[in-house]
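Quick review question:
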């Protein structure tokens, strides 16, 4: 289930409505998180929505020239939507550069409430 939502192509601007993300097969990080959250809710998987910040200036990724120029002149802070759950997730997503570490394999061996890695 996680992989199917993760693999929905990124698109912006896009609706945050889970039904719209499914219908269009395209969504922003937030829209995909709301969809995954709704699926988790329906299955009884505990989670919570979170907002965090990300600084593009601190990213190890190599951005296109115009963005590199902007980063030399300004600090660019992005608010990002996450899901957090007691389950552990590993890997990476196909969402835009700067997204927090996400993943595809789930481990139930962690104790409830100990996970600190958000999904994106």
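Suggested answer, residue by residue:
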């Amino acid at each position: 289930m996680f992989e199917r939502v993760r693999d929905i192509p990124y698109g912006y601007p896009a609706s945050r409505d889970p039904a719209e993300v499914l219908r269009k097969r395209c969504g922003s990080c937030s829209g995909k998180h709301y969809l995954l959250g709704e699926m988790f809710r329906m299955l009884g998987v505990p989670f919570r929505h979170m907002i965090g910040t990300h600084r593009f200036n601190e990213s190890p990724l190599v951005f296109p020239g115009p963005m590199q120029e902007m980063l030399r002149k300004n600090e660019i802070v992005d608010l990002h939507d996450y899901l957090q759950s007691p389950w552990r997730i590993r890997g990476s997503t196909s969402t835009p550069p700067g997204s927090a570490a996400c993943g595809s394999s789930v481990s139930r061996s962690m104790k409830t409430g100990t996970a600190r890695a958000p999904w994106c």
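Why it works: Residues 29-43 form the longest helix (15 residues). Residues 30 and 81 are 6 Å apart (CA to CA).
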